[in-house]
């Protein structure tokens, strides 16, 4: 979730990187960097000593141990090798030559930022877009309390910095979430704070244990029937929602939150929450949960994206965050107790063929404590609601605005899935047109502005030497709308993602909605399955139109969010 690969701190969401201790003492690598041949394929032989360059950041990062974080597929494909820069050493430009506003002593560019006419904490996209206009495809910015930022709209640069930092992904941000967990009653989390806010060894301890269960296709597919069931319920609910006025109500985004919460609840909690039931009483659990979801997102947004006043005194938004966090923790703890009871029962009765749920797998995993499992459930709930629901909102808008595309998708869905037939992984695999439509939606409306990493190695970006410790930010949201990388960039053309690439080759680092590498979105497959299911069921049952002349406006609330009312009308198909 959130901007610039989850830009949850003052200027967006950032990823920092850990530094290899092995690398620190390897001076041979300095030569590689200076040759422009920055290659991380072997941490031992290729990395250089970032301590030589940036004492504060590198020293902080170097506390983390080195280990290869390569996934087996990446290793097999040699994917960790960053593309060596073709630029010769003597032609490299200095870091100081990178364009950007002149920093002032002590405050850097902070005044420039907060007084910039496009600076708007409710829409960071405008600000970053304006800087690209002003300074070009690469620029730098100094902001107090953060490493200097080097922003780029060159996908080659993004490839270089993402690949050069695969071993050490540290993300800034989520400080408020971290604080809430550190201060939890009775030290519930044992001073561990979970995947979203953690970094370094602690992040890897968790990530290495949870990523296989969460990303394994078989595990994801296990939830397809339940997600399909919830989505079918949502489709029936649309009839109810439209009963009065003939179109969905102004707060349709809230309805999408209910669908997303129901779906991620089925996975993370193994429970039907009942969010999609008709006529729920105002004090029922689903209504309370939806209230907590809204509180959580607004509180996280306020505590993370604005000045961190909560660090000095308990602000209203911090208290709101604590309250909604506690409500979800109670839910998670209850679901864990149920799962533990099921595991005990299975042990007693012996049922070797039973496929464990994701939570049961976590509970059975050596090295994961109960509180680790609790943070995982919470992070899945927190990262799995606004992301999928906003994407569905944007996809519906694009389909409504492009009736030809919608008709074509309907024809393809009709050819593959019979009405009333349960969705299977084979159906999803046969509907690459839906996959392409989602890729195209996330190209036009990426939830995060891009991807960022604190460099753990010197790299060359657009011919400039960029030292370790800098915060490299790739503005994928800008690249995604550039003619140079995507012909007819503002048009919704899902077929551009077909294997034969009818509009030309696509740079693999130009559109990266789920990020890349060892810290990429761990819920990617679950998210895709949910969104595909939604679109397939919607296209089967309805034709969607947008009953307003307004163009889609966006804002940022952790992630990109529709700011325009979702004035959809769903017309039942015969
Ligand atoms: C359209 C839907 C989604 C998009 C576009 C998206 C995008 C992202 C991005 C860009 C990141 C940051 C990756 C990085 O730091 O390099 C991320 C991280 C994460 N996402 Fe998603 N996400 C989506 C849905 C979900 C869902 C449904 C879940 C629930 C399981 C989820 C769970 C997470 C978690 C736990 C992380 C943190 C991973 C880590 O730090 O190791 N996401 N997501």
TrEMBL record:
Molecular-function GO term, any one: iron ion binding
Co-factor(s): heme
Family: Belongs to the cytochrome P450 family.
Name of a matching Pfam family: p450
Keywords: Heme, Iron, Metal-binding, Monooxygenase, Oxidoreductase
InterPro entries named in the record: CYP11_CYP27_families, Cyt_P450, Cyt_P450_CS, Cyt_P450_E_grp-I, Cyt_P450_sf
CDD domains, per database record: CYP24A1-like
PANTHER family, per the entry: CYTOCHROME P450 (PTHR24279)
Residues bound to heme: 521
Signal peptide range in chain numbering: none
Keyword Oxidoreductase annotated: yes
Species classification: Eukaryota, Metazoa, Ecdysozoa, Arthropoda, Crustacea
Protein name (record): Probable cytochrome P450 49a1
Gene3D superfamilies per record: Cytochrome P450
């Amino acid at each position: 979730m959130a901007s610039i690969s989850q830009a949850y701190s003052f200027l967006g969401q950032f990823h920092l990187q850990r530094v290899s201790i092995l690398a620190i003492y390897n001076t041979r690598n300095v030569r590689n960097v200076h040759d422009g041949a920055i290659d991380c394929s072997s941490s031992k032989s290729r990395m250089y000593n970032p301590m030589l360059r940036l004492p504060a950041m590198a020293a902080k990062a170097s506390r983390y141990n080195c280990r290869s974080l390569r996934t087996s597929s990446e290793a097999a494909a040699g994917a960790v090798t960053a593309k060596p820069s073709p630029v010769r050493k003597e032609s490299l430009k200095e870091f100081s030559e990178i364009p950007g506003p002149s920093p002032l002593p002590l405050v850097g560019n902070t005044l420039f930022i907060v007084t910039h006419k496009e600076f708007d904490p409710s829409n960071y996209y405008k600000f970053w877009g304006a800087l690209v206009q002003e300074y070009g495809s690469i620029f730098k910015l100094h902001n107090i309390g953060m490493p200097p930022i080097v922003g780029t709209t060159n996908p080659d640069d993004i490839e270089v910095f993402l690949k050069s930092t695969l071993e050490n992904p540290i993300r800034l941000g989520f400080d408020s979430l971290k604080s809430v967990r550190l201060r939890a009653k009775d030290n519930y989390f044992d001073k561990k704070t979970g995947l979203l806010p953690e970094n370094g060894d602690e992040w890897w301890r968790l990530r290495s244990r949870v990523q296989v269960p969460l990303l394994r296709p078989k595990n994801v597919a296990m939830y397809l029937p339940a997600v399909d069931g919830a989505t079918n319920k949502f489709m029936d609910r649309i009839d109810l929602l439209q009963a009065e006025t003939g179109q969905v109500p102004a707060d349709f985004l809230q309805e999408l939150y209910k669908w997303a919460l129901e779906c991620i609840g089925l996975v993370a909690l193994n429970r039907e929450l009942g969010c999609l039931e008709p006529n729920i009483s105002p004090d029922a659990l689903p209504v309370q949960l939806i209230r907590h979801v809204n509180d959580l997102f607004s509180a996280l947004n306020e505590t993370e994206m604005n000045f961190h006043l909560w660090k000095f005194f308990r602000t209203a938004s911090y208290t709101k965050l604590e309250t909604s966090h506690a409500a979800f923790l109670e839910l998670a703890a209850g679901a864990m107790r149920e799962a533990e009871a099921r595991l005990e029962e299975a042990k007693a009765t012996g049922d070797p063929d039973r496929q464990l749920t994701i939570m049961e797998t976590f509970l059975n995993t050596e090295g994961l404590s109960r509180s680790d499992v609790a943070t995982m459930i919470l992070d899945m709930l927190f990262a799995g609601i606004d992301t999928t629901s906003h994407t569905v909102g944007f996809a519906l808008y694009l389909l409504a605005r492009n009736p030809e595309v919608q008709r074509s998708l309907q024809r393809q869905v009709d050819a593959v899935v019979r009405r009333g037939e349960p969705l299977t992984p084979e159906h999803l695999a046969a509907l690459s047109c839906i996959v392409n439509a989602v890729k195209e939606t996330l190209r036009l409306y990426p939830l995060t502005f891009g991807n960022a990493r604190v460099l753990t190695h010197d790299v060359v970006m657009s011919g400039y030497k960029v030292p370790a410790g800098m915060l490299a930010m790739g503005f994928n949201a800008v690249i995604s709308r550039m003619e140079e990388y995507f012909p007819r960039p503002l048009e919704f053309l899902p077929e551009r993602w077909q294997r034969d690439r009818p509009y030309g080759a696509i740079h693999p680092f130009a559109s990266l909605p789920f990020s890349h590498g060892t810290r990429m979105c761990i819920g990617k497959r679950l998210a895709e399955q949910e969104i595909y299911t939604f679109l397939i069921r919607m296209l089967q049952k309805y034709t969607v139109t947008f009953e307003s002349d307004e163009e889609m406006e966006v804002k940022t609330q952790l992630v990109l969010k529709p700011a325009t009312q979702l004035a959809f009308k769903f017309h039942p198909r015969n």
